[in-house]
Amino acid sequence: MKFINGVTNYDEWRDHAKDYETYKQRMAVISEMLAKKERGEKLTFADEVRLVGQVVVSALTGKLEDFYSVSTSVLMNPCCQARARMDGCICKECYAANNVSRFGTLAQALETNYLILNNFIISPEAWETLAIPSINGKARTESHGDTASVVCAINHTRIVASHSWLVFGTWTKNLTHYKPVFEAEGKPDNMIFIASSPMTNIQMEIPEPMRPYVDHRFTVCEEEFAKAHGIQINCGTWKQDKLDHKCKNCMRCYDRFNTEFDIWELKK
Ligand code: SF4
Question: Which one, out of 73, 133, 201, 212, has a CA that is 20 to 30 A from the CA of 170?
Answer without folding.
Answer: 201
